[in-house]
Structure formats: C-alpha cells, structure tokens
Design brief:
CATH topology: Ferritin
Distance between the termini: 61 Å
Order of helices and strands: HHHHH
Mean pLDDT: 94
Radius of gyration: 17 Å
Helix content: over 70%
Length: 161
C-alpha cells in the first residue's frame, strides 16, 4: 500500500541522502562519546556536560532518521561497517585538547549541515513534506548548537585567555 502518495522509485534520492545522513550521524555520535570520555583540563566540567547533551541529542536524531527511512518503506543502513564506508565524517582521535575537540565537532556539524541541505533539496523535489519537516528541524537545532560552540571556542582562543 502506498499510504504516502509518493512513488517509491521517486524517493530513492531522498532515502540515499537520509542513509548518508544516518551514517554520518553514527560516526559523529561516536566521536562525541569519545570526547565525553576523554576530555580533561580546566574546561572538563563544562565540556563533559555539553558533549553528553550533544551525544544524547544525536542518539535521538539517529533513531528519527532510521524511522523516517522505514516510513518511506525503505531500509536504513544498520551496520558500523556500512556507516564507516559511507560517512564523510571521520572517526576522531579521542586524545586531543578540548579546543580541538570542539573544532572537530564544528567540522562534523558543517558536514551534517551540508548533507541535511541536500536531503531537503531532494525531498522538496518529490513533495516529501514529512522528511522536509524532520530535517528542517534538525538543521535549525544544529545551526544553533554550532553557533554556541563557535562562541565558546572564540572565548577560549581569544588573546585575553
């Protein structure tokens, strides 16, 4: 039954984009976990909490993306090897300075934002408003989180410090 009113073949570019986003979110999630476990120094308490908030949010996004793919009557990628093969985000080294961790997260965000915009473009082309609504919400949130992390990084790296 086609309860969405969109032909499955027309959804393939949307699903491909969602699987790309899912793969990148999985690697991003693991980077956040590693940073949460390994952050040290004077910013430990602040960043330990922020990294946990970010990975808890990512965990929810991952589930939402996979369930959207299933709603579209396709299958989400579901193995770490598939995620690593498809992801444009690389696994981060867990042993780095806290400011480098934040810089890496911002780089991961930039990649996620680019992929989200691509998904929005593809979904718009087939009138897939459900995907547009989901991803547009993600986009606004990650842009705000990026702004906040960038503001923190600017403070930490300023000459007065």
């Amino acid at each position: 039954m086609n309860y969405l009113g969109i032909q499955s073949k027309n959804l393939k570019p949307v699903v491909d984009g969602l699987n790309l986003l899912l793969s990148n979110y999985q690697v991003y999630y693991q980077n956040l976990r590693a940073f949460h476990w390994n952050v040290e120094g004077q910013n430990f308490f602040e960043l330990h909490r922020v990294f946990e908030e970010l990975y808890n949010d990512a965990k929810i996004r991952i589930d939402d993306i996979a369930e959207r793919i299933l709603t579209l009557r396709h299958r989400p990628l579901s193995s770490m090897s598939a995620y690593l093969e498809k992801s444009k985000i690389d696994e981060a080294k867990s042993q780095m300075e806290d400011d480098q961790m934040v810089k890496t997260i911002l780089e991961n965000h930039r990649e996620l934002i680019l992929i989200m915009r691509g998904v929005l473009h593809e979904a718009g082309g087939v009138n897939d408003e459900g995907t547009i609504d989901l991803i547009a919400g993600f986009l606004g949130e990650i842009e705000k989180k990026s702004w906040m992390l960038d503001a923190w990084k600017s403070k930490v790296l300023s000459p007065q410090h």
